[in-house]
Amino acid sequence: MEGGKFKSMQSIRNIIYTVVFLITGSLFGAAFGMVSGSIPGRTGEAGYLILTSDDLLPAAEIISTLHSQEVPEADRLNTEIVSIDTLVSGVYGGYPTEMVIRAYLLDRIANTPELRFLLLLGDENDLPPIYTLGGDSPSDDFYTSAVEYTAIPQLATGRIPVHNLEDALQYTDKLRDYILTPVPGNWRDKIMLLADDTNKSSNNILIEMTHVAYSNALYLTLRDQFDVQTIYGTEYTPQPGPGWLLQPDMTADALATINSGVAMLNYIGHGSPTTLADEKIIDMDRDLQQIHDPVNAIWVVGTCKFGWYDGKDAMSEALLLKPDGAIALVAASRDIQPSSNYSYLDNFFGTIQEFVNNENDFRIGELVSFIKNDGPYEHLFHLLGDPAMRLPFPRMTTIIDLPASSDTLRILEPMEIQLTQTYAQFNNYLIIKGPEKDIMRGFPENNPTDFLFYKLPGDIIYQGFMSDQAQIIIPIDIQFCDTCTGSISVYSDRVNDSLESELTTVVDNWASIPIAESSAEISDNTGPVITVSSSDAIVRPGGVLFPPYELDIVFTDESGINLMDAMGHGLRYWLDDQPESTSLIPFFEYYSATDGHTGLSLAIVEPGYHDLIIEAWDNVNNKTQSTFELYFSGAGQFTAEKIFNYPNPFKEDTYFTFTLSEPATVSISVFSIGGQKIVTLSAGSLESGYHAIYWNGKDQSSSTIANGAYFYRLKAVSPGGEVFETINKLARIK
Question: CA 332 → CA 51, 233, 322, distances in Å?
């Protein structure tokens, strides 16, 4: 149900029953206490209570088993499932469902001190929220707050607003994977800060500036513990669009960052249940299917109404149900003021900072619920997800062996990074950045005295896996001065040998390492060597690619690869005559000081020949630009393409060339015009990609064939038994 009628009815009903409860509260409480022992569910104390409907009980059982039996023993909870259908059909039949829930939960809290977590598994129809007194804003805080209508819940509460069992099971599958088969990698140390721009018709520019100003304050809080990635609207040029401006470049960067994997993203700015910003930075209808998050980030979106789950088709719900969407969301259910949003976020991320510094052990539900202090809008923040889920972030510890490492970023001179012996056997990921950037934006069209000041992270110098030590060449583009400093971060993780789901994750940051000029002589005057591969086979100009068009690009240079992108000296690619290029830096990983690689997924609409142009610079600013003319096949099944023999006609010998979409066993048979078999060439098992099979022009008796026309048949059989055959002509001449 949607619209003001539903909200008004809820508000009126809440007012009426609040008055009734105030008058008859003692009688109601006494009756409740008398029968609480008969309420369905496992007897005894519970750490985690799941409240759901009869229809969703199978999904509730999966979550209960997950937290009581499947997670590492130290994380296990005593779980209990209670059916709301049994509650409302019992002694409290006739009372509003939301009031029955509140009375039941307050009784359980009073009699079960160990109860910590509450999961509401169901939408607003199964588990109707309590709305503000005389208002239309729902809050799950009101179920367990000691004082009604206050945003101080006594339980760490989360809601999974699924509409049916199919949706519920889809989410539980994602949740079990997230917890039991954790994805390793430094994504756990990444937080993306997304901020709206300052464009808004008929609004105070000072208010619009707060989007970036507040995000900058969060950046300053998090930068010493996390690899913070900032995407601010003020850094992009808006484009005219239908009805209002658009930010296509900002959208592309935001989606690319999400799809590269981050632990959490935060957005500050305008919005709606389906859209971030009037500029549609991320829009449900347009962008949801472009989100392919490999790790399922936690979304924190305090913008107006993004968490409106009751009676709306909201993007928050769609992200929660999408297998490669979000694992959880913290979002406001109605309109919220910027200052109130930031006040809560400041507390929220400050508590995350304490978690990383080993000062608390909150799970996500505790993080969202227990930091509330009943501010005027805090009841609007809902956790959509499992409240007992562990936070994904690493813990701070000493990883870098400072005495054994170089103490300065000295331009064009190798820098040594050494790790302590404890972490030599971990999976280690190293990131080095240059100095932060100080940004000042003025708005003379509004007021010449209005300025916005903020910082951006430094450019990437090095990113990639390492063992116990690494060597890095510092690019010539790095800024240096008496006070300029860079930063070094090492993330480490290791899966416990006895239980795969127990993942040890730690991080260490060296926040202020000096940058110094060097007198090193430059002898390198050639750009990087660029090699492109597909399905482990090198792609050569004229080669064939089969969908999906997944490439691996390797860059090699004795001076290292420049990732700073200063003055355009970075890694980028484009297709044909596209006016805009795309950066490859976010996905680049070093193997060593002199080489690294990046993956590239290409979406080609029209099959046929296309030019892939790749540009790279090394750390002394030598440039390479390589063009690969490639044939993009539209075939979505096993096939062979680009089948030729060369030369044709031939005099003495020839090569049969072709490209396989998958590995296959290949044979080539040559026939006379009359159909007599001349010879069969068995190529055996071949990998996918380009191949050339030699033929000496002789038959099975090793006799040279006569001049004239012939046919040849290429037969390829995939490992799955799929067969591809084709017949072509060839000719021999004197």
Answer: 22, 21, 20
pLDDT in tens, 500-529: 446 789 999 999 999 998 877 889 999 999
Which fold is adopted by the domain 4-168?
Answer: Rossmann fold (3.40.50)
What residue segments make up the domains of the chain, in order of their start? 4-168, 394-520, 529-632, 640-732
Residues with Cβ within 8 Å of residue 374, at least 6 apart in sequence = 150, 151, 152
Higher confidence at residue 669 or residue 605?
669
* 410-446 residue pLDDT tens: 999 899 999 999 998 899 999 999 999 999 999 877 7
Tell me the average pLDDT across 312-319. Answer: 95
* Arch. (CATH architecture) of 640-732: Sandwich (2.60)
| pTM summary value | 0.85
Say if CB 619 and CB 559 are below 8 A apart. Answer: yes
Per-residue pLDDT averaged across 342-364, rounded?
Answer: 97
Strands 437-442 and 79-83: unpaired
For 355, left (φ over 0), alpha (ψ -120 to 50), or beta?
A: alpha
Output the CATH code of domain 529-632.
2.60.40.650
Question: What 3-state class would DSSP assign to 242?
Answer: coil
